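seq/struct pair 1
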Amino acid sequence: MSAREETALMGNDSKQALVERSIPFLGEVRNRTAGKDLEAWLNTTYGPDSDLYRDLARLIQVGVLEEGWAANIEVDGPRYRRSLIAEPSADTHYFSITAVYMHSIEPYRGQYHAHPYGELNLVVPVDPGAELAGPSGWQGPGWTAPAPGSHHYPEVRGGALIALFYLPAGRISYDIRPSRSAA
């Protein structure tokens, strides 16, 4: 087996491990509604000191930073990339799994979008001090959970981070226009 084939196989293994590690978690949250209450619960129950957070953070960092199978499609050059890891299916309790990589020292806004059914984001700073804007303010290591019907620009500051996000039914809308107050 060539080195390239070996790397591809390892990538498939770590990608599959991430999906498999996500499935029990998705089964646990599948009937909960995203929003500030769920965000607080996620940060208390599965915050940075939890096994789930550490496992998912490690696997998504391997996918983005080492093996290149996650967040490998440029949206706005190399500082803003994303990729779909898993489509919604019965196995994933009808959540999709997507990774986003964003990098900026100054606050940087990504692509405006809406969450018809909400979103759960695992925030994994690559650089110490990197943060993602969420419904409860800036979030370093931990979770954000924008509510159903919410819409926003994803924003990062303080360096590079990865957001591993779970979307109920895979629903996300990029065809929405920002309100004047969001622009």
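seq/struct pair 2
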Amino acid sequence: MEVSRRERFTGLSSDEGTKKTAKDEPIYLRRRLGLLPSISFIIGTVVGSGIFIAPKGVLMNSGSVGTSLLIWTLSGVLSMFGALCYAELGTSFTKSGGHYTYLLETLGPLAAFVRLWTEYILIRPAVSSYVSLTFGHYLVEPFFTPCTAPTLLVKLVSIIGVTFVVLVNCWSVSLAARTQILLTSVKMFALILIIIPGIIALADGKTTTFQDSFQSESLSLTKLPLAFYSGLYAYGGWFYLNFITEEVINPTRTIPLAIIVSMVTVTVCYVLVNVAYYTMMTADELLLSDAVAVTFAGRALRGLAHVMPVLVAISCLGALNGGIFSSTRMLFVGAREGHMPAIFSMIHIYRHTPVPAVLFLYPLVVVMTVTGEIYQLINFASFSRWLFIALATLGLLIHRYQFPDHPRPFKVPLVIVMVFTLVSFFIVGLSLYSDPWNTGVSCALTVAVIPVYYLTVRKSCIPDRWEKSFNYYSRQLQILLEVIEQEVQTY
């Protein structure tokens, strides 16, 4: 009797398979995200912990209130430039995978392979862990005020948040998308709750902090890249919709429109939020605060001050959900291209979610959450992230020159691509001087991935015995997780 593909991979009988998969419904990641979910996805991923912890980092490294507000504005403009470049890339190359796919198509497999591995060894675990640590900090801190919350408890709550997000993303794509929309609504309410009292206070004449706002004795050119890192970190996430292109309805229209609407909204909100902070706090008070939004709420929203930490924690949870939802698609695509084990390109036969890719990320995030510290993690992750974003937009310029007739439904003015690429490389280069330890370690680990490519992909040097053993355990894991490869080409 002929054995079906699902029966071979999962051990289910044909009857069981038919009952549980709606008469052998094809397995693939479906297009479920329209314009509104896409906008919610970008805003929900961008607006996370950044706007609540980055103001301190921006001010600390910029040296003055005026310079910090200028950096917030320029970071928004630079992020918009980058987002427009990625809108062109996302409509020119219809595969999911974001940075990885664009590097693969423009600069070749080596750059894409290094980006893929650094994403999962460095960037995504670091990003997810500092977002989860902020979630834990804001959720636990109110119970111990005015004392400092126990570090162990903060990290335990952070891990619980990560676990919740991982379970949601394993369970259902629709549930993860609905969760993102809900959390985005809550976090926008939190921003409005900060902006309105700030504007009212500004109208009432509370402008002391803004007087002589550009005067500073601590302004240093070498620290400015770190100020931009903190600002750009808060805007980080504008590229995540490109990671899930194959799940977006009508991507040639939806991706550019969602990016433009989202980034304009976020930039305006971020600048207004920082202005609101400075109406209630001096620069020194902001630097002394470990929870800027909570300090603000204690002064401007006394009746609702206890609500703010919960809103911030929910905001972080939304960013965590969006980041894990999208970044796992990069691993999924990379495995599909042969740059990672095939198990990571497989989908659950009932839930149609990339379970192996999601689960692979979980222990890495937990380890970094246990061992990391927020501001070190920001600098550590930002170097590799911005290096490869700069390479992706450089690849866009090269691809335009080499293939001028390639279809580009959305085309960005050349000057925007060039400005964004040059500024990105400048920030990356100067950061090695500003924070040589964290960025140096990140650089070294990035370079260390190159030999892995030549030993495992370009020319496999893995002993046959190891390969057979790996294939055996991969098959057992495939049966255990009930996953198979995608059955429909979605690009």
